[in-house]
Amino acid sequence: MRLVVRWQNDHEEHEKRRDSLRFCDEDRWVRLMYIGKLAKLSGATPKAIRLYEAMGLIPVPSRQGQYRVYSLKDVSLVHMIRRAQAVGFSLAELKPLVALKAKTNQLSIEEANRLIARKREKLRNDMNKIMSQDQQLMALHEELNRICP
């Protein structure tokens, strides 16, 4: 198998640096990128991406010299992580699901549905607690106004 490496200048940036790679594996081109490009495409910071790596949420990337090299698969994983965080999932809660997706390259719908169902149940419980606290605060307010008119 012959592997061809070609540097591709990123025309979106006005800097004179190379931050995208394309590898040709037979007839298949795979776009690879450095952490800065992954950060731009995913909306995550490089620091967050390194944290995801350290936690095992995304696979440890290959290296081109001293630089980490990422693929479009990594963009997809980081997007999924950020979307889940936006709706209240912690990174620890996501670890089993994201690790499975990274390993199999497929999202386990069953596991995702279980995680979502658990998160919704916790959210409903939290909402019930908040409603109960609100009722207690209203009762306290009424009691104070009766005692001290």
Topology, please?
Blueprint: E1 3-8, E2 20-25, E3 28-33, H1 35-42, H2 46-55, E4 62-64, E5 67-71, H3 72-86, H4 91-104, H5 109-147
Helix pairs in contact: 1-3, 3-4
Concise synopsis of the structure shown:
The protein is α+β, with helices and mostly antiparallel strands.
Question: What is the string of SSEs from the N terminus onward?
Answer: EEEHHEEHHH
User: Would you identify the regions where 5 or more consecutive residues have pLDDT less than 50?
Assistant: 1-19, 23-29
- Coarse structural class: alpha+beta
Q: How many strands, which pairing sense, and closed or not: the largest β-sheet? A: 5 strands, antiparallel
Determine the number of helices (DSSP H or I, runs of at least 4 residues).
5
Strand order of the largest sheet: 1-2-3-5-4
Percent of residues in beta strands? Answer: 15-25%
**Gross CATH architecture of the largest domain:** Orthogonal Bundle
Strand runs, count: 5
Calculate Rg over CA atoms.
Answer: 23 Å
CATH class of the largest domain: Mainly Alpha
What is the helical fraction, as a range of percent? Answer: 55-70%
| Large-scale geometry | elongated
How many domains? The number is 2
- Output the CATH topology of the largest domain: Multidrug-efflux Transporter Regulator, Chain: A, Domain 2
First and last CA, distance: 87 Å
**Overall pLDDT metric:** 80
